[in-house]
Amino acid sequence: MTLDELRQIDFKDLPNLPLGSQIVSLAGLVILILGLAYYALFSGMQDEINLLQAKEIQLKENYIDKKRQAVNLSALEDQLKQIDVSFGTLLKQLPTKAEMEALLTEINQAGIGRGLQFELFRPSGEIKSDHMASLPIQIRLSGSYADLAAFVNDVSQLSRIVTISDISLTPAGKAGEDRLTLQATAKTYRALEADEQIAKAAP
């Protein structure tokens, strides 16, 4: 039976058609009904299945990640203890509020001890974070390259942590003289005292 013949079938007259036409017509009708049923019932479900499969993959990845963390928990706890010890050691290297003035004097003396001439030594206001405060100090001093390098090394050897950044070197004095001007920011840090941490945490 051709497609044109199938279109011309009058379903009201189906019982009077030859047996072959009846079978083909019924088969076509069943396929049409099943197709419509699939589209109506299962096409929406397929989207939901795809979403659930994507969620399953994500949950598996989360599970593997959590399992890895659980396996390494004791190692992570040991590492945290080591970090706490290291942090405590570093905090002990920070000056207290009362020691800051003495530290500034030590930085100044480190330059004078090398025969350097200070043109600027200006501490700025403290910058406070959650647990510590930093004190930037603008410095400008002149001397030979060797003495300036020795000064930077001396500052790095102080008992308390002092960093030097934003360094610039420019010639100083007359041409041919072995003198340079060093301009930089020295920065020292101190741990906030208990009352300061409470005041900072207060709203």
Give an overview of the whole structure.
The chain is an alpha+beta fold and 203 residues long. It folds into two domains: 1-71, no CATH class; 95-198, 2-Layer Sandwich (Alpha-Beta Plaits), CATH 3.30.70. Helices cover 55% and strands 21% of the residues. The chain contains six helices and five strands, in the order ααααβββαββα. Strands 1, 2, 3, 4 and 5 form a five-stranded antiparallel beta sheet that branches. Strand 4 and strand 5 (180-191) form a beta hairpin. Helix 4 (100-113) runs antiparallel to helix 5. The longest helix has 53 residues, at 19-71. It is elongated and about 125 Å long. The protein starts with a helix and ends with a helix. The relative contact order is 0.09.
In a few lines, what is going on in this structure?
The protein has 203 residues and is of the alpha+beta class.
Sheet with most strands: 5 strands, antiparallel
By DSSP (H or I, 4+ residues per run), the number of helices equals 6
Under CATH, the homologous superfamily of the largest domain reads Ribosomal protein S6/Translation elongation factor EF1B
Spatial gap, N to C terminus: 87 Å
Q: In percent, how much strand structure appears in the residues? A: 15-25%
Mean pLDDT: 79
Please mark out the parts with pLDDT under 50 across 5 or more consecutive residues, or reply none: none
**What Rg, in angstroms, do the CA atoms define?**
41 Å
Helix-strand string: HHHHEEEHEEH
Quaternary structure annotation: single chain
How many domain regions?
Answer: 2
Percent helix range: 55-70%
